[in-house]
TrEMBL record:
Organism, scientific name: Microbacterium oxydans
InterPro entries xrefs: DUF4166
Record's protein name: DUF4166 domain-containing protein
DUF4166 domain sequence ranges: 37-205
Length: 227
């Protein structure tokens, strides 16, 4: 079995010991023995989505399905489902499905994240077809959060790789931390284009818990509201 956060732990190396103890413990845990290497967490985004709304679908022919979000809302319940494994060469890989439960519609973002064998670096293949590939640098913040920032982006079409540089690049900054008061993980992600500004963002909290079919609210019973 593969640890929940094996890809991150391998990238961070000794620096992983600087993670908040709760985050480190959660990354080292293995999945439910009854469902090997599968895991899930539920939470609420205080804000999530894209300000471009339905215009985002114009990029679908290029990036493929499983990547674009066409809503922007506050208090959005969400679920993260992950499958941790190893490639035939032994690299840790984490497949993730993010389920955004917008009012009246559920949308999904999928990716597969790989350890690279190089200190601090992971590779992320975004969308159902993995057409957008990101090289991301992992580090630990002063308060023990995991931070990921984009180093390089490219489009993949079969064997063709097209680097996205300069005004065509997308810079992602993600911080995955710990809320001491409420005893839960926090998440803050922003993807920014030099030309278009913020193209996707989400921030909120989540907890790992057994699947019980119950929805998670933000404490006020709010199930989601469009902006």
């Amino acid at each position: 079995m593969t640890a929940r956060g094996a890809a991150f732990l391998e990238a961070l190396g000794e620096e992983a010991e600087r993670l908040h103890p709760e985050i480190l413990a959660q990354m080292r845990v293995h999945a439910d023995p009854g469902r090997p290497d599968l895991d899930s967490a539920d939470g609420v985004f205080t804000v999530a989505g894209s300000r471009f709304g339905r215009l985002s679908v114009l990029a679908r022919p290029v990036v493929g399905p499983g990547l674009l979000v066409t809503r922007l809302a506050r208090h959005v319940p969400f679920r993260i489902e992950t499958a941790s494994a190893r490639t035939s060469s032994g690299r840790a890989v984490l497949a993730t499905v993010r389920e955004f439960r917008f009012p009246g519609a559920t949308q999904y973002v999928r990716d597969r994240l790989f350890a690279t064998g190089h200190p601090g670096l992971v590779q992320n293949a975004l969308g159902d077809r993995g057409r957008v590939e990101m090289l991301e640098h992992c580090s630990v913040t002063s308060d023990g959060a995991l931070r990921m920032r984009t180093r390089a982006v490219r489009l993949r079409f079969g064997r063709l790789r097209i680097p996205l540089r300069g005004p065509l690049r997308v810079d992602v900054d993600l911080v995955d931390g710990w809320d001491e008061v409420h005893g839960r993980r926090t998440i803050d992600m922003r993807a920014v284009s030099p030309l278009a500004g913020t193209v996707l963002e989400y921030r909120g909290w989540y907890r790992y818990a057994p699947r019980n079919g119950h929805a998670v609210t933000d404490g006020d019973g709010v199930a989601g509201s469009d902006q």
